[in-house]
Amino acid sequence: MIKPLLLVIAVWLVAWFSVKSLAGLRLASPRGQRLVDLAIPALFGIWLLVLWELIVRAFEIPSVLLPAPSMIWARISSSVPTLWADFRQTYLKAVIAGYALGCGAGFITAIIVDRVPFLRKGLLPIGNLVAALPVVGIAPIMVMWFGFDWPSKAAVVIIMTFFPMLVNTVAGLAASGHMERDLMRTYGSNYWQTLLKLRLPAAMPFIFNALKINSTLALIGAIVAEFFGTPIVGMGFRISAEIGRMNVDMVWAEIFVAALAGSLSYGMIALIERAVTFWHPSYRT
Fold first, then answer.
1. Residue 282: its pLDDT value, please?
2. pLDDT (0 to 100) of residue 284
3. Is residue 145, in this structure, part of any structural domain at all?
4. Rounded Cα gap, residues 136 and 143, in angstroms
C-alpha cells in the first residue's frame, strides 16, 4: 500500500512542477507564447489521465467503480457506431434545435421587453422563477406533452436556454451609457438606429455570455430529459441503461462524448465572440 502511494505522490509532484514550469514560461514571440498557452491545458489534461490510470492500477480499483482511461478508450474504439447514433439523436437533433429556438426566442423577447417597459417588471420575475425550476420536474411533463422522441427533449432545452438569454440580453441592452445615448439622440437617431448601432454592439458580451452558458445547459438538459422516456437511442438513454447493467466503461464513454461536444461548442462560440467583440477591453493586448 505504501509503495503505490509513494509512486502516485512522485508522479503528482512531477506533474505539478512540469505544468508550473510551462505556465511560468514567457516568450518574446506572440505566436510562440500562444502555443505555450495552448500547451498548458493540454499537458494538464494528459497528466490527469496518467494519474487516473496510475491510481486505478496501483490501488487495484474495480472497474465497476472507476474504470481506467485505457479501458474507457477501448470501449470508445469498439462502440463508435453506437456512440455516433446516440450523439446524433441527442446533440444533432434535440440540443441544436432546442438551443437555436431557445436562444432565438429569448433574444427576440428581450428586444420586446426593452421596447415595452412594463414587461420588464412583469416578465423578468416570472423568468427568474421558471429558470429555478429543476429539469427533473420539467422533463416528465415535456415527455407527456411532446412524446418520447427528440422534440420533447428539445422542449426541455428551450425552457432551459430561454431565460438565461432573456436576462443577459436585457442587461446588455442597458449597458450602454447615458452619454452615448444622448450623442445618438443629438445625431437624430431613432430607437432602431440606436438599438442596432449602439445598444446591441454594447450588449454583445452579455449575449455571448448567455450563448456560452446555454451551450452546456442545453446538453445537460437533453441528457437528463432522456432519463424519463426516449426511443432506444440517445446519450441519456445509454447512460441510464448501461449503468443498470454495470457497464461503467460505456457510461464513461458517453460522458467523454458529451464533454467533448460541450467543450467544442463552447470553444466555437468563444472564437466567434472574440471576432465579434474584438473591441472589448478584455481582448486588448
1. 60
2. 55
3. yes
4. 11
**Please, which residues have CB within 8 angstroms of residue 252's CB and are 6 or more apart in sequence?**
67, 72, 75
Number of separate domains in the chain:
2
Place of cell 450523439: 87
Q: What is the pTM of this model?
A: 0.83
Give the mean pLDDT of 237-258: 90
Where helices occur in the chain by DSSP H, the ranges are 2-23, 30-58, 69-78, 80-87, 96-115, 117-131, 135-146, 150-173, 178-186, 191-194, 200-225, 235-244, 248-276
User: What letter represents residue 95's amino acid?
Assistant: V
State residue 283's pLDDT score: 59
Question: Any residues with CB less than 8 A from the CB of 167 and at least 6 apart, and which?
Answer: 124, 127, 128, 131, 210
Co-location of 134 and 263 in the same domain:
yes
pLDDT of residue 40: 85
Q: How far is CA 129 from CA 16, 119, 159, 165, in A?
A: 43, 15, 12, 15
The dihedrals phi and psi of 207, each to the nearest 5 degrees, come to -65, -45
Q: Which residue segment(s) compose the domain that 16 sits in?
A: 2-61
Euclidean distance between CA atoms 218 and 101, whole angstroms: 11
Residue 30 vs residues 21, 27, 33, 36, 43: alpha-carbon distances, Å: 18, 7, 5, 10, 20
Round the average pLDDT of the chain to a whole number and report it. 85
